[in-house]
Amino acid sequence: RAKAQGGNRLAVFDAEANAREITRYGLTTRLPAALEEGEFFLEYQPLVALGDGRVMGAEALVRWRHPQQGVLGPDRFVALAEQTGLIVPLGYWVLEQACRQARAWQLELEQGAPRINVNLSVRQARNPGLVNDVARILKETELDASSLHLEITESALIGAEDQALDALRELTDMGIGLALDDFGTGYSNLSYLRRIPVHTLKIDRSFISGLQHPDAPGNPRDEKIVAGLVSLAHTLDLAVTVEGVETELQAERMRALQCETAQGWYFARPGPPDRITALCAAGADRWTGGACA
Ligand code: C2E
Ligand code: MG
Ligand code: MG
Ligand code: MG
């Protein structure tokens, strides 16, 4: 009987694995058409200055409106696009769209327009045309380089060749900001911090979830890691952004640790561009010591 059950379980498992494989295959083969048909779109999540509650930036996050499966998040398709190389044209589409939106915010809001943060994958950083294409996109969208920050994950930098690091250096020479995304999750040997001019460390949300939460006691070790990362960043004259702030308590902890900028559901979930316009137009002080709007 146990054997039969085991056998069944194996069959179910096989069927599931198989279904997953078929889905992956289906998504992968559909990616190029999706780009051509305009099925991708961007959402924007505010980056909030913890000092005064100002929305000083927004991160562009890609989504896929799949005709049969509904809206898919990047965790479903970015890795697939990376494997097939489609991430390169998709990445340029994202970059252009995001820069155009950032320029639109500048024209719409007389002052206090947010800068735009765009995620860059390893494969894009390795692409020889990167520097020229970014320069061209900035020119075409009439966005100044300092209004664009690129986010690259720590793990992407670890295996990066000199050529990719040179490209990142050229981009920062143009005035573009560089943020290290998901900081603390890679094998941080930190040596690349000497080789490329990073401006911001984005502390990964896995550490923040260990901070005090009304439903769960804080993890004292996570508190110490976060405090250490913030102080490391400041020693190196880097700014700090924390991801994944979900509660007022967490926002307060991070403010107390002198962290400059935060991002997370407590402030706002990713949403359409008008939401950013409205938050910017509403001005600062929204989240300081008050309830979340
Ligand atoms: P990321 O760059 O670290 O982006 C932050 C992710 O955390 C986003 O997930 C965001 O929706 C989510 N998040 C924000 N605040 C909270 C919070 O308070 N709690 C929780 N639980 N989650 C929060 P999303 O949009 O699913 O994106 C996942 C990842 O996909 C991104 O991680 C980024 O690495 C990648 N990605 C997104 N857009 C692009 C893109 O245009 N190009 C590339 N290459 N990668 C992208
Ligand atoms: Mg990011
Ligand atoms: Mg991140
Ligand atoms: Mg992340």
TrEMBL record:
<feature type="domain" description="EAL">
    <location>
        <begin position="24"/>
        <end position="284"/>
    </location>
</feature>
<protein>
    <submittedName>
        <fullName>GGDEF domain-containing protein</fullName>
    </submittedName>
</protein>
